[in-house]
Amino acid sequence: MTARQPLFVGGSWVEPDGGHYEVIDPATERTVGWAPEASRDQVHAACAAAREAFGPWSATPPQERAAVLARAADVIRDRLVPYAELARAETGATTGTARGMQVGVAAARFRRYARVEPAEWAIPPQINEAGPMGRAGVMGALAVRQPVGVVTCITSYNNPWANPAGKIAPALAMGNTVVVKPAPQDPLSVYRMAEALEAAGVPPGVVNVVSGARTEAGEAAVASPDVDMVSFTGSTAVGQRIAEVCGRDMKRQLMELGGKGAAVVLDDADIGSAVSGIGTTFSFYSGQICTAPTRVLAQRGVHDQLVEQLATYARRLKVGDPREPDTVVGPVISAAHRDRVESYVELGRKEGAVVVTGGERPSLPTGFYVTPTLLAGCTNDMRVAREEIFGPVVVVIPFDDEEEGVALANDTDYGLIDYVWSSDVARAFRVARRLRAGGVGINTVGRNMEAPFGGFKKSGVGRDVGSYALHAYSEVQAIVWPG
């Protein structure tokens, strides 16, 4: 696993101008491999290759593009074990998560977009009166989805398989070409995805992968004049900088940014269900997920019981080596990120929060571990309640009535996914419709992978997943004719 990875540009594996940098296993702190540092010129070359490939690829029949995606899904599925082992080493995910939620979901996403869907639909005819635009008549119309062009895909570190697959597959299905800039912490998995696509017969230049630990590669991939659209998953702060660059050239954007998901637990909730759902913040990716229910709003009738059961749940989770089958909580991605998460816990103490459980570093010989931490006695104006921590930390805020709960949930810069727990389904739906979030889970943290995904406010721009991703990676053209 210590080979020096080349770039993938224009269908060729290319040595990087900037040399290589070390990719670290966050559990063992050992070297996983050496990732390439692309120069600005190499990124521009990748964008130019994608531009050159766009014409032929966009003219390829959708069924042929779909067949490439289906073969890529088969290759990924056939290589699931070694791919998952690399993902586990790069990210610190548990073996089960790496296989099921990372590589397995990536294969499923390629398979999903191997299904050809209609790219045009009729619009009801319109009867026009005579006027300055012509004689009276009946006008027919057709709406057609056309590819955007060259798409830069900048992916997140928490899932180097599912996240890029969710961008690349629908973009290619629509006839776009892509330049992928992986997260610097775990780019090696994305190069394996490029290998799978190459083996599946993707033409040269249709998919390009350029990485870098410095900001140069990402900046070049966004600013290149050959790029028509940027699809980004990451922090709101970085998304805002990308949006400024895109705005100057009117590039299309798809932004999935930060979150501070509110879990509104009403006084008639099934507490066991709420605890198991909220508890995923402690365990799933060690809280490094934007959709996590990190901000718990508990109605006073259930507040104390909920805090007690969440603390018990957190204490029972095994923190340790993600290769061990009984490990639930692996490390966070890096030493720097561990320090950041720990600094938020200390900040919470200073702000007056009560550390009910956690708050200390586990006594493990190596690895960037954070103990699952529960902060109670919080108020919604605390920084730990307002800022995305991106770690296994849950804050609990009490409220009195439904009106206050909704107001607290909406009092945030974010709006990605919120949650409601109540045994009264009508009440839960009533509350859900009042929440300013792109998605709401009712009595679940599960997702429907055909439902639109995206955020309100500073949580992003646009929607993807399912058929919505095909819309996201396309322009809509209207064709009108006299009836």
TrEMBL record:
The family database entries (SUPFAM superfamilies) matched by this protein are listed as: ALDH-like
User: What UniProt keywords are attached to this protein's entry?
Assistant: Oxidoreductase
- Superkingdom as given in the UniProt entry: Bacteria
Aldehyde dehydrogenase domain residues are: 13-479
Q: Which residues cross the membrane?
A: none
Gene3D superfamilies from the UniProt entry? Aldehyde Dehydrogenase, Chain A, domain 1 (3.40.605.10), Aldehyde Dehydrogenase, Chain A, domain 2 (3.40.309.10)
Q: Name one Pfam family in it.
A: Aldedh
Name listed for the protein in its UniProt record: Aldehyde dehydrogenase
Q: What is the lineage of its organism?
A: Bacteria, Bacillati, Actinomycetota, Actinomycetes, Kitasatosporales
